[in-house]
Specification:
- The chain folds into 2 domains: about 170 residues, Rossmann fold (3-Layer(aba) Sandwich), CATH 3.40.50; about 130 residues, 3-Layer(aba) Sandwich (Rossmann fold).
- Helices cover about 35% and strands about 15% of the residues.
- Helix 2 runs parallel beside helix 8 and helix 9 packs across helix 13.
Length: about 350
């Protein structure tokens, strides 16, 4: 092979973080579709508080990467209006706790647009939401409020847990004809890297991902807790317990069939999530198991969750979040019960 041939040989892209995968997905869709726009507080010139939109303003200009006032209500209203009139806006709620002023537009308008107009209008918008704790931020910056939105008909609620899933699922969310709440676990924004080809290949929404096969207990989780749950599965394996790990990924609509199939094999289930325990989304999964998989269960369903308090600042923050030890202990209780 000549030196010129070597120079022309294709190279594998460098691995990227979850936050970089989001930027890559937005840039891909903005190049492919002029109706895709980005808007939010500081998303333009500054590239966003977490730099998720870094470089997009330089590439696409201020008409498509729009710095808004510091006003979440206005951001939500603009987004719904743009989406109902043929654009595909990607709005950013700078932190999860900043969503509450947006609720009226999200729940009363975005989620109902197709239903209200009998299909004449729809609302192809994505609301990106940096989600969850673990970064030593104050209240309103560290919430896990996904369960609120899983109760709203007309919304999709999505939460990726890796760079590859972030890229593929954001592409799918942007292409959806109806509104998507896209929660981004900010604790793992830069935690690790993966190879993510910028090939425009979307991943399916509305499916769970089985990340590890197992026979003894099913561990169900989503978002940042996938990391601790996989680590717990490794520890359990070292003690002779085979754990299957499921990343829910899309909370609404829930792919319950994948969870039920796993539990029919293992007979035991541990649900892991960061949000407070009471009325957390894990309760919905546990209820479905009780209704539809009762005779497959060999032990009561276990939940490992945050506590029924606001996330504590700052020294107790990591104590609040589900840990490997807590997941392992719950799996052992399930094994001992049946």
């Amino acid at each position: 092979m000549s030196s010129n041939d070597k120079a022309a040989a294709p190279t594998t892209p460098a691995p990227i973080t979850l936050i970089e995968a989001l930027t890559q997905a937005m840039a891909h869709e903005m190049r492919a579709d002029d109706s895709v726009v980005v808007l939010g507080e500081d998303v333009g010139v500054n590239g966003g508080v977490f730099r998720a939109t870094a470089g997009l303003h330089a590439q696409f200009g201020s008409q498509r990467v729009i710095d808004t006032p510091l006003d979440e209500t206005t951001i939500a209203g603009l987004t719904v209006g743009m989406a109902s009139q043929g654009m595909k806006p990607i709005a950013e709620a700078q932190f999860d706790g900043f969503m509450y002023p947006m609720v009226d537009f999200i729940v009363c308008h975005a989620a109902r647009m197709r239903y209200r107009t009998r299909g004449r209008l729809h609302c192809p918008m994505v609301l990106r939401v940096p989600w969850g704790g673990g970064i030593r931020a104050p209240e309103h910056h560290s919430e896990a409020n996904e369960a609120i939105f899983t109760n709203v008909p007309g919304l999709r609620v999505v939460m990726p847990s890796s760079p590859q899933r972030a890229y593929g699922m954001l592409l799918a969310a942007i292409r959806e004809p109806d509104p998507v709440i896209f929660f981004e676990p900010k604790r793992i924004y830069r935690q690790y890297k993966e190879h993510v080809p910028d090939d425009g290949e979307a991943l399916p929404l509305d499916v769970c991902y089985v990340l590890r096969d197992g026979d003894d207990v099913t561990l169900v989780t989503w978002g940042a807790q996938v990391k601790e749950t996989l680590e717990a599965a490794e520890q359990l394996a070292s003690e002779g317990i085979s754990a299957e790990v499921i990343d829910v990924a899309t909370l609404r609509p829930l792919d319950f069939a994948t969870i039920a199939e796993s539990v029919s094999k293992t007979g035991r289930c541990v649900i892991v999530h960061e949000a407070p325990k009471t009325a957390g989304f894990g309760a919905e999964i546990a209820a479905r198991l009780a209704e539809e998989s009762m005779y497959d269960l060999l032990a009561p369903v276990e939940r490992v969750t945050g506590y029924d308090t606001h996330i504590p600042l700052f020294r107790l923050e990591m104590k609040y979040l589900p840990s490997v030890d807590r997941v392992v202990a719950a799996a052992k209780r399930a094994m001992a019960a049946g």
